[in-house]
Specification:
Strand order of the largest sheet of chain A: 4-3-5-6-7-8
Largest sheet of chain A: 6 strands, mixed
Largest interface: A-B, 75 and 75 residues
Structural class of chain A: mainly alpha
Radius of gyration of chain A: 30 Å
Number of strands of chain A: 8
Oligomer: homodimer
Shape of chain A: elongated
């Protein structure tokens, strides 16, 4: 199933599936490609607009990257291209360096895709995919929800036909509010109708198609192409009434042709200032891509290789940079559609790329009369499905630390932008994790009568011995919590003059670092000075291996016991 | 033993020991105070010189802080005052803002003591003592060793009688080397003799005194006062030959009198730039103080309260700031001497303060002819005992992550100074800890024949079932490692078509955060989609409490088993 190249060589998963490629696979892939192409055309145009780029750039970013991903990707069904959150992050990063709409803006966006591609490729070749694990789910959830709200707010001005700016939610809403006297009625009418139609497509089109006789699956897939209908309808309407002459902003002239050959700006100072945004875009894109890839692969008992995905996404972004595109990643919605439509192999991605290529060759003149407000409506409907306040409620019930991380990420992202929000969320969740492990649960345990089990004296009725203190440390011992154990033992020894033995049950200790080893040595020494013995029980193999490389066991005043019960019995006998 | 004030009130431990104060306690405390005073006079002068301050400031810093500590401190024997590492950090921090020797320099040092006092007091009242736990032992060890080397190098110029600067080890050594043509012979002779005498005092004086008939303990204590002999001898010699006239730098005129009433500079911009150094000084001072305090308290089965120690050290530093001193903390060497000399209560500290007060009132004229080179020799001998390269060897053998932390702290401190070294060390050790827990040990377990034990299939000969995958996760499940479990299970499911059940043994899982809960839900869902069941066994009480607050258990495709053996038996029976 999964023959691998030597670990130092990037694998070419395409060699695996291409070998068994057959006619019926081709047909299924082609059908899926048609549906995904219809879905991807409006998305590509809209996300280019969200990123502040000309619409054709969105089409270009949906050709070469798909071809490269088909060659390198380990997921059978992932569909790459522009996605909402990454487009928002692109706009935020590029906006620092150039004015939207300028040639420099596009050149910086291309450079950002190039850097992001290099970073992803390097992470993949160095097998650094684990970096993405430091984005906790609360942080991702808070970030995605905030991004959805920011994106929706950023489209308000286009829906209303006003000019407004703003770098955070409050600024954006205030700027639009200040322009409330200048709302363009016809634009608002087109935008609102597009919104209403698209929301109806989401809810009402599938039942309607089913009532009209389509199978549930066909109806569901056809409904996914609904945005195309909105775009065709709005374009025809705008052409018919000559909306541009009435002041409705249109997409306008879109160059017709193949994606151009481009290159990034070779400017080291620019690279340095784009490094952090490129890293964040890479990590966020990778996380989105790998989540959907894993979920879909598991449904068919397949799997994806996260490090190979990094290589494939890196290649896709490099391809975007050299073909006039901007940062791309595997999109959630379109990959699910690809899967549901029956795509079997990445060849579906190749066919999709061909479809988009035809669109950019032939279709662009037809886009002249497409109102920007309709694209904005497409974006708003897509991103509002990302907004999920349920995570706040769930984490509030489940764990306050996680709730704090969601809330902080959400608030900082809304107030200070996507990059600050991510950095604050990751930093805070790491601190909260460290804080929690630095406050370990240490239970005093005693024997459950009639068994060999030892449980917390505060939760159970258990038998204890006055001369023996048995403690179970519920955390790996490391520098941030080693002193908590010292404090606990010091306190117990000072309070109980009859104490003669301390037994540390180590079943939940997965590691003991050098600081904790020093602490254990200090505890052992102090107990010895005070005439007490320190014992360990149920030490795990890997921890025991480590302890045997130190002097600790030679100085230990007591013994290491295989089970806690053996220790308790032997000490009870010795103390009479 | 340990009556406590309400938790929101700072306790006054002095009320406890003062109640039982008796005549024989008084005599023991007084004797200890005499010895500590003799030790503290040269140290106070030397550490003031190390901090770039006039010698009398060292004496002032050893009066009021001791009185406050005696009132507030929870250790019976801790001796506070200027210490080497904190003095070096003071010099580094204050040197950024004023020229050494200027009035502004002293004012900034006083402000630093004030801020450090406020920080310590706040940490104590807010019970934030755990912050100090994030200084791991490898970081402390690397930092102390590097500081010792830096301090010794900084005294070279004084020992040789040349002018030289430098902010790191290489710069200091290079600056001294560049001045090698200007070495002052008589200064070098005095410095070298002082060094030789002090090293001999450390090694040879105690045996000599024992041969002369003193008891070993008396000989040991008398030897601790050796530096006073060096200072008296060097002063008399320098006076006799009028060394000052021959170009030997002397301490010179030291004001005679009580510690002055001073106050910090009320300058918010200065406070802001001193905040980080003050925080680092506070944490380092607290760690040094609490380590020695705990070690000594445990020897008499007493204990100290870390949060109360913060309050006491905060008060001591505020006292230093208002009485012409600089940052102080509990010193290692002098506390051990105090303990060995038989100090019973903090009253010994009060008597020591009185002794130093007399010295600053009466003794200062006698210090005029004291050569600075002799003070430098005192410092060098004291700090070289801090240098410990053994930690490098021990951590290399014990754990490479800890070794990396020691080495990085050592190198960065030597190359870029004390503050960078600490920050780099703490940051690196946190990252290494996170990295380790993000790469958890996940063992596949099987039944040890004839027992109810389940062990790692790679370490033991065990019985497994083809339809059941039993995994033991040796780490709490949190965001950074949750995906590792997903990957492991995905891989196993893809490789073993016969698999029907996955059982996760949770005995070493001390927490499951919201990300890990999502991962478990995703694993459960994917296994269900592929026709497999997920089971948990041996889930701890606190973790079970948390899971019951979520939906997870309702969606779980398998069961939660009390013991792993029950799960294995039931699944074997079910699969026939």
């Amino acid at each position: 199933m999964n023959p691998r190249a030597p670990r130092w060589l990037p694998a070419l998963p395409a060699l695996v599936w291409a070998r068994d490629y057959r006619r019926d696979t081709l047909l299924r892939d082609a059908l899926a490609a048609v549906i995904v192409t219809l879905m991807l055309i409006p998305q590509s145009l809209a996300y280019a607009q969200l990123a502040g780029l000309p619409p054709e750039v969105g089409l270009y970013a949906s050709v070469a990257p798909l071809l490269v991903y088909a060659l390198l990707g380990s997921s059978r069904v992932l569909a790459v291209g522009p996605v909402a959150v990454v487009s928002l992050m692109t706009a935020a990063a590029v906006g620092e360096h150039a004015a939207a709409g300028s040639a420099a803006y596009l050149a910086v966006a291309i450079t950002l895709a190039f850097l992001s591609g290099l970073i992803l490729l390097a992470m993949g070749l160095l097998r650094l995919g684990f970096i993405a694990h430091f984005l906790s789910h609360p942080v991702i959830s808070g970030f995605i929800t905030a991004s959805g709200l920011l994106i929706a707010a950023s489209q308000l001005k286009t829906l209303l036909g006003v000019s407004a700016g703003g770098h955070n939610l409050v600024e954006m809403l205030a700027a639009v509010w200040a322009q409330r006297g200048h709302i363009h009625g016809l634009t608002l009418a087109i935008g609102a109708s597009s919104l209403a139609f698209l929301f109806w497509v989401r809810r009402g089109l599938q039942p309607l198609l089913q009532r009209l006789g389509l199978s549930p699956r066909a109806a569901e897939l056809a409904a996914k192409a609904g945005p195309v209908a909105a775009i065709v309808g709005a374009t025809v309407f705008a052409w018919a009434i000559d909306a541009g002459a009435h002041g409705v902003k249109l997409v306008g002239a879109v160059p017709q042709g193949l994606p151009p050959l481009t290159q990034p700006l070779w400017d080291v100072a620019l690279w340095q200032s784009l490094l952090v945004p490129a890293l964040l875009i890479s990590v966020v894109g990778f996380v989105e891509s790998v989540s959907v890839g894993q979920t879909l692969a598991a449904k068919r008992r397949q799997r994806i290789e996260p490090d190979q995905e990094l290589v494939a996404l890196g290649g896709s972004n490099l391809a975007a940079a050299f073909s006039g595109g901007f940062p791309v990643t595997g999109g959630f919605a379109r990959s699910v559609v690809n899967f549901d439509a029956g795509a079997q192999t990445p060849a579906a991605g190749v066919f999709t790329a061909v479809g988009i290529l035809f669109a950019s060759l032939l279709l662009t003149p037809a886009l002249f009369h497409l109102p920007q407000a309709t694209l904005a409506a497409t974006i708003v409907v897509a991103v509002l499905s990302l907004v999920d306040f349920g995570m706040l409620r769930r984490t509030w019930v489940y764990a306050k630390a996680d709730f704090t991380a969601v809330l902080a990420t959400l608030v900082v992202t809304l107030a200070a932008g996507v990059e600050s929000g991510l950095v604050a969320g990751v930093g805070l969740s790491l601190l909260l994790h460290l804080w929690r492990t630095s406050q370990p649960h240490i239970a005093e345990v005693g024997q459950v009568p009639g068994t060999e089990h030892y449980r917390n004296v505060q939760r159970h009725t258990v038998i204890t011995q006055p001369a023996v203190l048995a403690l179970r440390m519920d955390e790996s011992l490391y520098f941030a919590n080693a002193r908590a154990l010292e404090d606990r033992i010091n306190a117990a020894v000072a309070e109980r003059p009859a104490l003669r033995h301390v037994v540390l049950q180590c079943s939940a200790i997965n590691d003991i670092d050098a600081s904790a080893l020093d602490s254990l040595e200090a505890i052992n020494q102090r107990l010895r000075d005070a005439g007490l013995q320190l014992h360990l029980s149920e030490v795990k193999g890997p921890v025991m291996d480590k302890l045997q490389r130190s002097d600790f066991l030679r100085h230990l005043s007591g013994r290491v016991w295989l089970t806690h019960h053996q220790a308790a019995c032997a000490l009870a006998a010795a103390e009479g």
